[in-house]
Design brief:
Elements: E1 2-3, E2 6-7, H1 15-19, H2 22-30, E3 40-44, H3 50-58, E4 64-69, H4 72-84, E5 92-97, E6 110-116, H5 125-135, E7 136-147, H6 151-154, H7 169-178, E8 183-189, E9 192-198
Parallel strand pairs: 3-4, 3-6, 4-5, 6-7
Antiparallel strand pairs: 1-2, 7-9, 8-9
Helix pairs in contact: 5-7
C-alpha cells in the first residue's frame, strides 16, 4: 500500500468492506455508472480489488476496466484474488502499475473514472485530480469517494491515519472544479462523501 507517496509495509486488512459502508457506496455508484452500454472505466487505487470487482459485476459485457496502483505487489495480489473469484472471466480488467498523477493514457480516454477510499493516501491531490480530468472524455463522469476528516478519529485505522490525513470535501470539490469540469455535486453520507463531476 502507498500512503502519501511512500510504501507502507506491514499487515493490512480490508477494513470490513469500507468499514461497513460498502453496500451503501456501491448503491450510490450503481446509479451513476452506466451499465447498459459498453464503456471504458478507470479504477484509481486498486487496493484489495473491491472497486474493480464491483465494476466487473456492474458493467455491461464488452466494457473494459483499467485499475491503477503504484504497487506491483498490490496489483499482483488483486489480480490473483479476482482470478480466483471468477471476476476476470466476466469482463476485461487491465492491471496497470502507475502513479495517478502521471498516467500514460491519452486525453479524453475514459467514459467513467471511479476511486473509492483512496484520496487520503495521495500526496498531491491537485495533480491527481487534474490528471483524472485530463484522461476523462468530454461528458464523462468522475466519481470520487473518500472518508471525511472526522473519520480519522472514529474508525479503526486511527493508528495509521489522523484527521489531518483526510481532505475536506469542499477542498476536493474546489480542486475538481479548478481542473475543468462542467458540473460537480457533493453528497455527504455519515463519515464519507461522494464527489460526482461531469467533464
Amino acid at each position: 500500500m502507498y500512503y502519501k507517496g511512500k510504501k507502507v509495509d506491514g499487515p493490512l486488512t480490508p477494513g470490513n468492506d469500507f468499514h461497513s459502508y460498502g453496500n451503501r457506496i456501491r448503491a450510490e455508484l450503481s446509479t451513476r455508472v452506466p451499465k447498459n452500454r459498453k464503456i471504458k472505466v478507470l479504477d484509481v487505487g486498486t487496493g484489495f480489488g473491491s472497486a474493480a470487482t464491483f465494476l466487473a459485476k456492474h458493467l455491461a459485457k464488452g466494457s473494459k476496466v483499467w485499475t491503477v496502483d503504484p504497487s506491483k505487489e498490490i496489483l499482483d495480489n488483486a489480480r490473483e484474488k479476482l482470478s480466483q473469484e471468477g471476476v476476470l472471466s466476466r469482463i476485461s480488467i487491465e492491471f496497470v502499475q502507475a502513479d495517478a498523477a502521471k498516467l500514460e493514457f491519452e486525453n479524453d480516454f475514459f467514459d467513467t473514472i471511479v476511486s473509492i477510499m483512496v484520496l487520503h493516501h495521495i500526496e498531491n491531490l491537485g495533480a491527481v485530480v487534474g490528471e483524472l480530468v485530463r484522461v476523462l472524455k468530454k461528458g464523462g463522469r468522475l466519481l470520487l469517494v473518500d472518508y471525511a476528516p472526522k473519520a480519522g478519529k472514529k474508525l479503526e485505522f486511527l493508528k495509521r491515519h489522523h484527521e489531518s490525513d483526510f481532505f475536506e470535501p469542499i477542498e476536493v470539490m474546489e480542486l475538481i472544479k479548478q481542473a475543468g469540469v462542467s458540473k460537480a455535486k457533493l453528497s455527504i453520507v455519515k463519515l464519507w462523501y461522494l464527489a460526482d463531476a461531469t467533464k
